[in-house]
Amino acid sequence: EADIYQTPRYLVIGTGKKITLECSQTMGHDKMYWYQQDPGMELHLIHYSYGVNSTEKGDLSSESTVSRIRTEHFPLTLESARPSHTSQYLCASESSYTEAFFGQGTRLTVV
Amino acid sequence: AQSVSQHNHHVILSEAASLELGCNYSYGGTVNLFWYVQYPGQHLQLLLKYFSGDPLVKGIKGFEAEFIKSKFSFNLRKPSVQWSDTAEYFCAVDEAGGSYIPTFGRGTSLIVHP
Predict the structure, then answer these.
(1) Which of A47, A106, B1, B20 has minimal CB crowding within 10 Å?
(2) Which of B25, B36, B44 to mutate to test the interface with A (most CBs of A within 10 A)?
(3) Each residue's pLDDT tens digit, A24-77
(4) Does residue B9 sit in helix, strand or coil?
């Protein structure tokens, strides 16, 4: 059982609201990622981090931001949610010598 | 940029049929290779991985994959599928050495009819 947790699992929110998706891991992994996944589609990397105080944007343009103040915590924030942000967001972590471990995901709907 | 191609987007099989899902990648250096599975309503989890050594890799639930370096391929196989194998399957690649970010293929949706 992987020790990586995402909250909330499901979120329905109105346009313009600020939201933060939480992701925490207890494995001490240095690398953490956020992916966006639409049904039947590939995973698109939106943010990643190599460690504390390291954050980078991924391949998919995103209006979200992330922070990495602690090794175990990698939250993603949307300052002003829009319907185009409706998707599933997957958080993952890995060390240099393992595979990626994924959380359960957050399914976000912006109305 | 590195890319991963999965050629079969939707596969429908009957129980006991054999399965082969194709995966090709574009990176020319030394790679780590993975197959992940996502069962309905569950999180993505590792099915098998190749870091080095024997190019034929055995995974959970009777799955195996073969790394063919000359073809940049890492195809997934199972000789006899079961209804419980119904899931999404994702191939992923990252650079050996740990500095690269995993790149995922589009995924293959497998439906197995009882």
Answers:
(1) B1
(2) B44
(3) 999 999 999 999 998 778 889 999 999 999 999 988 777 899 999 999 999 999
(4) coil
